[in-house]
Amino acid sequence: MAERLHGQRPTLEDVARRAGVSKSTVSRVINGEPKVRAAVAERIRGAVAELGYVPNQAARKLVTRHNNAVAVVVTEPQNRLFVDPYFDCHLRGIRQELVRHGAQPVLLFIEEQDDYPRVCDFLGGGHVDGALLFSLLADDPLPDMVEQMGLPAVFGGRPLLGSGHRSDVYTYVDADNRGGAREAVRYLVSLGRRRIATITGPLDQAAAIDRLDGYRDVLPATPPRLLAQGDFTVRGGADAMALLLDQAPDLDAVFVASDLMASGALRTLRERGRTVPDDVAVVGFDDLTPIAEVTEPPLTTVHQDIEEMGRLMARMLCHRTSHPPLRGDDAPSLASVVTPTRLVIRDSA
Amino acid sequence: MAERLHGQRPTLEDVARRAGVSKSTVSRVINGEPKVRAAVAERIRGAVAELGYVPNQAARKLVTRHNNAVAVVVTEPQNRLFVDPYFDCHLRGIRQELVRHGAQPVLLFIEEQDDYPRVCDFLGGGHVDGALLFSLLADDPLPDMVEQMGLPAVFGGRPLLGSGHRSDVYTYVDADNRGGAREAVRYLVSLGRRRIATITGPLDQAAAIDRLDGYRDVLPATPPRLLAQGDFTVRGGADAMALLLDQAPDLDAVFVASDLMASGALRTLRERGRTVPDDVAVVGFDDLTPIAEVTEPPLTTVHQDIEEMGRLMARMLCHRTSHPPLRGDDAPSLASVVTPTRLVIRDSA
DNA sequence: TTGAAAGCGCTAACAG
DNA sequence: CTGTTAGCGCTTTCAA
């Protein structure tokens, strides 16, 4: 069916000619404007179908200034990403909300330094109306770049900025990492545990820092031997646990900054012959049910509603993109949101 | 720094005015054309930086007809995708090759029926120069749509088409699933196994069908009780294995159509007290090392170079997009490629 | 209700 | 080496 008219994809003009009307009229029916005679509209729709016409978004965007697509940018080594159910939840919420608003989510990865300029050109190039940015590292250039381009953006997790920046100029959605960590550690204390270690995430990420801060809020004078840094992977958690056991064989509890790492820690504990929770109590963070429920023993962990956070981010972004920027002073940017966490007690502590 | 000139993002015109030259000259330095006096070029670069100018790709695309972005479309429930290291490898290869060609990969998901029209509009809207399409299901409308839009595309895995379609009109890259399966089953036979069962993938996917066909090539007269269908997940493999054990307690080998399923099957076998490979020999498919090497026992499986396949797909697509479509007859479309597989023998068979 | 015309921001000849 | 001039395909006043 799709006749190639001039060897190219059909344009509005082609459809118009075919239907014997003007471009304007075709444009009107394409965009669902009501003031077109039914018969004409029908004829046009026929022509569209016959020619297999699809509007050229680039051209449309040039005039309308938007194109119903939003970027989801993830700064993360891919191999980590695709193995971490955390993103899956986040993305599910985002997708759900975005499509509800008629926006197409497009996923972009940043894996190496070289990716920044290309991704920035893409973001600034008007391919998308806004961006949802994730897992920013310390001194990540993205927040500044996005801000400078004036592209509406919402961050997943508090952006960690270099000195001189205030994170309150950015809109973000984050879980109450610090409060959640505090609750977890307090719970361990309430259990009568005395030597409570912690396995942190990579400390160039806000979530890792905040969770450690929460731990320190409760246990300000922790000796270094009770601290080990992991990398939010199972393996990293296992290694950190081994290190901890070497440094402090007498520890009786450990607060692990993610479920993935906690499952690794559990494995090490088992290998070293420690029983959980009797010898060592373990509390994780995230409450990724596919993990937390199947560990041995099932994991006591800090719950956060990741999917809802994704939905929230998407909703906030859509709010900012659907309205043309207010003139005069800055538009009243939606405030950032910190969502509550809660401790879910299973068997590991 | 980024002064808002007319309250909008700066345009080429703004930069030109600022640098005291014409738009053309600015355009030249933006696009790295050499014939510009160094001093002028420098002045322009200064203006670009001061204004925070980023070219509007929509406008550029309108005239150049391309925009250095290609879509990677995945038709898969997200939760499956994000847990399957298979895609990780594929994507790694694709990304690598695409950025080498200066193209930005953008990932699109199709999860439900409603996603098709939106994704098609995106693909047809000229946001991307081409598309890499994955894990198509039987009767997936995507191949036809993409073909009809004239968007260059390369498929990952042989597309499964409804009747009346010949898959040879599409360019695809696929592993030799049938040959690999044949080799696996022959190996099992050579081991002296007599009752060789198989766990298939979902039979609406080409890879699953082809692997089953390979099994049947060697064992044409398999009784139904030796067949069970899985869904390419760990859980599915475990369930299928349980079913098989019920239906055919005397089986002495099983060819499992994916490593993920094989790891599930191994678990079931262990739970049922069968030793591997003594009681039951197991061969998987994919050779996802993060899985195959850590199963207990390590998995004998059919290896395919997934990352290289990704690279190949990207290379083929870039080849097709960088040249403007030849006039007259169809451009000599690159032939599809079937990459070889090889059996990797570890301990499970 | 429909059409004509003016641009959106950019590149690509073609002059100079 | 640089500026001028046309559009790319679409939406959007403004008239008819």
From TrEMBL, chains A, B:
Domain HTH lacI-type: 10-64
A Pfam family that the UniProt record links to this protein: LacI
Record InterPro entries: Cro/C1-type_HTH, HTH_LacI, LacI/GalR-like_sensor, Lambda_DNA-bd_dom_sf, Peripla_BP_I
Molecular-function GO terms, alphabetical: DNA-binding transcription factor activity; transcription cis-regulatory region binding
Domain of life: Bacteria
Keyword DNA-binding: yes
HTH cro/C1-type domain location: 11-44
PROSITE patterns linked: HTH_CROC1, HTH_LACI_1, HTH_LACI_2
Keyword Transferase listed: no
Coiled-coil region: none
Keywords: DNA-binding, Transcription, Transcription regulation
Annotated PANTHER family: HTH-TYPE TRANSCRIPTIONAL REGULATOR GALS, LACI-RELATED TRANSCRIPTIONAL REPRESSOR
Protein name: LacI family transcriptional regulator
